[in-house]
Every structure is written in structure tokens, then in C-alpha cells.
């Protein structure tokens, strides 16, 4: 099979590799489409992981082989592959911190080498733990593979929305109107909130309005905090979601979030970045700051429902399609986007 192998920082090699061999409780999925995620880009661009690895985790495809012990699935079934599934038994899982579970982190799908997602290949192996624990989701006949590939990123965004405990009528500021920011707009609106977006690119500001934002502003607007206060009876945003890894965006969030509000770190910041803040700003204003990393297994069914019932318009997020052989080109476009660059999909 063909696969894109990470051979070092910014080094991708399109190679012929053996199709992964299956154990009795495992499944082999032929990848039909895989989304390019910002986390994939960071893994390729920064020295975060030892090579060789095959990344890619927003995967949709068809079951092509199964082990002898697999009885609940058939060859030819169309599925979304969730590359992480927690154990549901450890202390982290018992406290709802599923993405901190050791099994969640270490037992993932693979196309070879170490478990690392594996979607950037023609075939990906799903280990028995993920098969048994509900890590495969059947795709309805009226849903395309492209649409289905959004279930995993929808889950990640939904987790942040769930952690923010957004109530109908509350105002949410979303910093960044890339594909993830746009998805946040859709989810906030779906659950009855008011969405305000910011970005630096005029076309993305317009796109935010097109997908349902109540307002969208240039992030450099010196009157941004005043404008948000005018929209919120002088209070400020109830919740701010940081969908871009920017210290300026964080300080802007502090200015724009109301007393007693919440700030959610969703984007992954560079490891070397440090942010200094007077702790009394949090103490006196009672602002809650938290992070939201990866997906939440209990939200899997709702995430699939949102996509499969077309309650959010994932088609509106797609901007580019590349053959898997051009992954390096796709990464370059994502790193240096045009005003029209949003979600990039890859086809093995």
C-alpha cells in the first residue's frame, strides 16, 4: 500500500509499505478520505515525535478485512474511525477526563510503525480495544465519506462547547475563523448561543457571517472590546474560545470576556510560548480559564448525529482536496493559507 511516512521534522516520504497484518480481534479499513488537522501539521513541522510514523486521524473508509473474532462488522461496511477510545475504568475516566487516560493516549489506530493515527495511508488497522469499545461508527447511506470525516473534529469542538456550559442566549467570542472557528460558530448557534468571531483576513470575517455568526470583526480593531460590550448590555462575552494559538488573542479575550465568564484554550500553543498575567485579574474578575484537548468519548453519538443529520453544514467548511501523494503540498497550503483556505481533505 501507499502511505505518507513522517521521516523527521518537515520530512514526508510517500512510500510503498506492507498492508498491516490483523490480529483476530482487529479490523482493516480502506481509507477513502482523511482530513488534514492542525495537530497533524504540528507533528510534521515540529520535533514532537520520533520518526518513523504515519499520522492522520480524521478518517472515513470501508472495512476491507476483519479478524476471525470480529462478528459485529462486515466487509464493505462504511465507517468513521475514532483513533482514540478511553478505557472507561481508570481514575481519569471516572472523573470525565477521558483524553488523559493512558489507554486513550497509547492505544490508537495505525498504518504501520508505532500507533499514530495512520490515516495518511491507503489502509489503517483498528486495534481490538477500539473495535470492541465502539470506536467504529457506521456511516448512513446518504452521507458522503467527506461529510463523515468531520465526526472526529466535531467531537473535539463539541467537547469545548460542553466544557463551557453555554446556555441559550449567551454570547460566545470565537477567536479565529478558520475551519475550526467556523465549526464553533455552527455549534454555538445550534445550541442557542450568540456567536461573535474575529479574524485577521477579511474573507474569513465574511465567511464567519455566512455560516451564521451574529457578528464578526477584524481582530486588530482597537474598539473590539467596546463593540462586544455594546452587544452584551455592557458585560462582555460570557465565553471566549481561543481557536488560534496567539498570546495577543488571549489578552484580547481577557478584555472582552465578562466578569465571571470563561476562557477556553482550544488551540495548541507552541511549547516555547509563555504568557504572563496578573493573577488578581482572575481573582477579582472571577474569570475561569480551562483547556479543552482532543475529543470526549461520551459525546461521540451526539457528534455523529450533528454531522449525519446535517445539523451543522460541514460541506461549507471544505475548501481543498488533494491526492495523498501531495500531502506536503497540502500542509504548505494550510501553513500559508489563502483567504479561501479552510478545511483540506486528502484522498489515498
Overview of the molecule:
The protein has 348 residues and is α/β, with parallel strands linked by helices. The protein has two domains: 2-149 and 313-347, Alpha-Beta Complex (Quinone Oxidoreductase, Chain A, domain 1), CATH 3.90.180.10; 157-291, 3-Layer(aba) Sandwich (Rossmann fold). Helix content is 30%, strand content 25%. The protein has helices at residues 38-45, 91-94, 102-106, 128-132, 145-148, 151-164, 179-190, 202-210, 224-231, 247-256, 279-285, 300-308, 327-335; strands spanning 2-8, 11-16, 27-35, 58-66, 78-81, 123-126, 136-138, 171-175, 194-199, 215-218, 237-242, 257-265, 288-291, 318-323, 343-347. Strands 3, 4, 5, 6, 7, 14 and 15 form a seven-stranded mixed beta sheet that branches. The chain has a six-stranded parallel beta sheet with strand order 10-9-8-11-12-13, sandwiched between helices. A two-stranded antiparallel ribbon has the order 1-2. It is globular, with a radius of gyration of 20 Å. The termini are close together.
SSE pattern: EEEHEEHHEHEHHEHEHEHEHEHEHEHE
Q: Termini distance?
A: 10 Å
What is the number of helical segments per DSSP (H or I, 4+ residues)? 13
Number of strands: 15
Portion of residues within helices? 25-40%
The mean pLDDT is 97
Amino acid at each position: 500500500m501507499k502511505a505518507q511516512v513522517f521521516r523527521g521534522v518537515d520530512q514526508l516520504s510517500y512510500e510503498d509499505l506492507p498492508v498491516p497484518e490483523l490480529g483476530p480481534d482487529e479490523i482493516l479499513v480502506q481509507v477513502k478520505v482523511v482530513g488534514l488537522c492542525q495537530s497533524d501539521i504540528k507533528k510534521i513541522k515540529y520535533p514532537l515525535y520520533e520518526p518513523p510514523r504515519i499520522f492522520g486521524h480524521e478518517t472515513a473508509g470501508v472495512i476491507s478485512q476483519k479478524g476471525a473474532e470480529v462478528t459485529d462488522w462486515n466487509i464493505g461496511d462504511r465507517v468513521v474511525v475514532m483513533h482514540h477510545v478511553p478505557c472507561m475504568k481508570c481514575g481519569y475516566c471516572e472523573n470525565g477526563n477521558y483524553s488523559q487516560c493512558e489507554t486513550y493516549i497509547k492505544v490508537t489506530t495505525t498504518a504501520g510503525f508505532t500507533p499514530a493515527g495512520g490515516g495518511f495511508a491507503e489502509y489503517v488497522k483498528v486495534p481490538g480495544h477500539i473495535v470492541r469499545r465502539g470506536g467504529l461508527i457506521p456511516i448512513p447511506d446518504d452521507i458522503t465519506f467527506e461529510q463523515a470525516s468531520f465526526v472526529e473534529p466535531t467531537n473535539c469542538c463539541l467537547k469545548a462547547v460542553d466544557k463551557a456550559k453555554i446556555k441559550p442566549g449567551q454570547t460566545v467570542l470565537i477567536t479565529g475563523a478558520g475551519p475550526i472557528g467556523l465549526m464553533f460558530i455552527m455549534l454555538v448557534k445550534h445550541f442557542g448561543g450568540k456567536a461573535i468571531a474575529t479574524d485577521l483576513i477579511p474573507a474569513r470575517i465574511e465567511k464567519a457571517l455566512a455560516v451564521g455568526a451574529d457578528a464578526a470583526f477584524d481582530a486588530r480593531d482597537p474598539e473590539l472590546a467596546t463593540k462586544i460590550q455594546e452587544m452584551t448590555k455592557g458585560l462582555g462575552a460570557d465565553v471566549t474560545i481561543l481557536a488560534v494559538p496567539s498570546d495577543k488573542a488571549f489578552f484580547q479575550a481577557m478584555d472582552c470576556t465578562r466578569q465571571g465568564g470563561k476562557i477556553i484554550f482550544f488551540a495548541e500553543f507552541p511549547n516555547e510560548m509563555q504568557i504572563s498575567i496578573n493573577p488578581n485579574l482572575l481573582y477579582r474578575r472571577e474569570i475561569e480559564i480551562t483547556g479543552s484537548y482532543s475529543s470526549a468519548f461520551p459525546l461521540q453519538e451526539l457528534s455523529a448525529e450533528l454531522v449525519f443529520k446535517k445539523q451543522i453544514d460541514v460541506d461549507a467548511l471544505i475548501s481543498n482536496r488533494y491526492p495523498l501523494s501531495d500531502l506536503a503540498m497540502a500542509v504548505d497550503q494550510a501553513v500559508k493559507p489563502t483567504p479561501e483556505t479552510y478545511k483540506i481533505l486528502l484522498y489515498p
